[in-house]
Design brief:
alpha/beta, five-stranded parallel β-sheet, 5 strands
Amino acid sequence: MYSRILVAYDESEVAARALREAIGLARDGGGAVRIVHAVDIMFPATTDMVYVDLEAYRRDRIAQGQAVVAAGAAEAAAAGIQAETAVLEVEGTRFSNAILDDARAWRAELIVVGTRGRGALIHLLLGSVAERIIRHSPVPILLVGSPQPGKAGR
């Protein structure tokens, strides 16, 4: 079994499913869980900007991320699992890179990530965080997809 399980988490249903899988694996195998959430701290430039407090924007994004991982940690605690959390600041890099860097630093043995199964065109244009993690991960990956319509989810 895996003793160090990192899960990428956001507020989506597929990420909630990934978290439940990570919690189940940790509970069954006596492992530790680390819940990470990447936030983009780069302010989106617009033409009507007069003054923007970039540090306040950054603090707000991080606070939002902390609320997300706190909700995930509360779900883990309700299942009897203590989870570490981290908000990963992303600026000028891909979310997948930040997640992989954190997994390496924490010495994760498994990464659990949700995949939304976007259409081919959107995937071609935007890529996939999950796909990039698969391509570059030094450890096994557990992909958790959205339930199919009409099928019961776990």
